[in-house]
Specification:
Distance between the termini: 87 Å
CATH superfamily of the largest domain: Response regulator
Structural class: alpha/beta
Strand order of the largest sheet: 8-7-9-10-11-14-15
CATH topology of the largest domain: Rossmann fold
CATH architecture of the largest domain: 3-Layer(aba) Sandwich
Helix content: 40-55%
Radius of gyration: 25 Å
Largest sheet: 7 strands, mixed
Oligomer: single chain
Length: about 375
């Protein structure tokens, strides 16, 4: 009787082992069908409204791709988006970048800020992981010689040129004061604006600096007021750009106020209130309603997440460009699909996307807007090839 019991126990144990091995095999097979990609932006803190906008744009693309079905190398795969918060901090960005590499992501969408994208890009490059930023516009980001670094938005050389020329030639402001927040984005853009102002025949009446955490701008604005500037340009984001214009008006400084995509947000309109009236801001790219897929994207995005802040369409396109390269390569292995990224010819929501040797998008447009009674109204769109 004992021998029989032992035999049955052995059979049961063997059956359990077979079942466990089968389950493990299914899990391994399932895991092999998952393609992980990272999405990095400030999801907490003063710039979280930008970051959540980017992350939602990327997530919408992933959800649609999974619903439609993605075939890579003859195998149906599931795209998994891993979102990380870099808090718009360069040091945190490098920690997050390594975290994503450890999680074996196959590509990264981000980072949002130039100041975080630049240090993170070396980490991704060294690991052979392609990175596409939807919103980092600093020239330095793609000027490092990394073949893994791309962006789907034009750089600040083009944007700075448009802003500087507009201030002098269209607004007739010969004396321009420039403030930047000392970030890679703010300082780099301000430098380009300064070059364009002088090239257009204007002069820099005052050059001032702040930080991306400042709240009191009294000292620098007092200096600008004394310099009799016709226009004030601010290179930075809306958490500083909005209180800056409010303090300008409180000081009786009625110069024109000019900014870029960092302040061309819904949040700026709320924060600046009536003091923001007549602010002029640029945005790389076409107006949403003039983008090839803009109206459809806007309807889908707003139904799911609410109004677009600024960069969501570009994050959406970045995901699709990344997956398109994998599909064409027949592999999600970064070493195999990276060459296909350089050959990209993709019709996105924001426009036709292809890259130059640096990874910059070739077709560019810069659109200028004006704050009129708390709404961004279109002034004009200028198009051209990326320099």
């Amino acid at each position: 009787m004992k021998a029989v019991a032992l035999g049955r126990g052995t059979q049961i144990f063997g059956l359990i082992t077979v079942v466990l091995l089968a389950l493990n095999g299914c899990q391994q097979k399932s895991a092999s069908n998952v393609v992980r990609i990272g999405s990095v932006a400030p999801l907490t803190g003063a710039q979280s409204h930008y970051g959540k906008d980017n992350d939602n744009g990327a997530r919408l693309a992933v959800d649609e791709l999974n619903a439609k079905g993605v075939i890579i190398g003859g195998k149906k795969v599931t795209i998994e988006l891993i979102s990380e918060d870099d808090q718009a901090d360069p040091r945190t960005a490098t920690i997050v970048a390594q975290k994503l590499i450890d999680k074996q992501v196959k590509g990264v969408i981000g980072h949002l800020n130039s100041g975080t994208s630049i240090p993170a890009s070396k980490i991704y490059h060294d690991a052979g992981i392609p990175q596409i930023s939807p919103s980092a516009t600093a020239i330095a980001y793609t000027a490092q010689g990394f073949n893994s670094t791309f962006r789907v938005m034009t750089n600040d050389r083009q944007q700075g040129k448009v802003l500087g020329e507009y201030a002098v030639k269209k607004l007739g402001n010969k004396a321009v004061a420039i403030i930047d927040d000392r970030t890679a984005y703010g300082q780099g853009l301000a430098d380009e604006v300064a070059k364009a102002v002088e090239a257009a025949g204007g002069k820099i009446a005052s050059r001032q600096y702040t930080t991306d955490s400042a709240t009191d701008f009294t000292a620098i604005l007092t200096a600008i007021k004394g310099a009799n500037a016709d226009v004030v340009f601010y290179g930075g984001m809306d958490p500083q750009g909005a209180p800056l214009v409010k303090q300008m008006r409180n000081l009786g400084l009625h110069a024109n106020y000019l900014g870029a995509d960092g302040i061309k947000t819904l949040e700026y309109l709320t924060l600046a209130g009536k003091d923001g009236d007549a602010t002029i801001a640029s945005m790389p790219g076409l107006p949403l309603e003039k983008m090839p897929g803009g109206k459809e994207f806007n309807a889908k995005f707003t139904a799911k997440y609410g109004p677009i802040q600024v960069y969501a369409p570009y994050a959406y396109d970045a995901v699709n460009v990344l997956i398109d390269a994998m599909v064409r390569a027949g592999s999600s292995d970064p070493a195999k699909y990276l060459p296909e990224l350089h050959k990209t010819q993709f019709k996105g929501v924001t426009g036709d996307i292809s890259f130059d040797d640096n990874g910059d998008v070739k077709a560019v447009a810069i659109t200028l807007y004006k704050d009129v009674n708390g709404q961004w109204e279109l002034l004009e769109t200028l198009s051209g090839n990326a320099p």
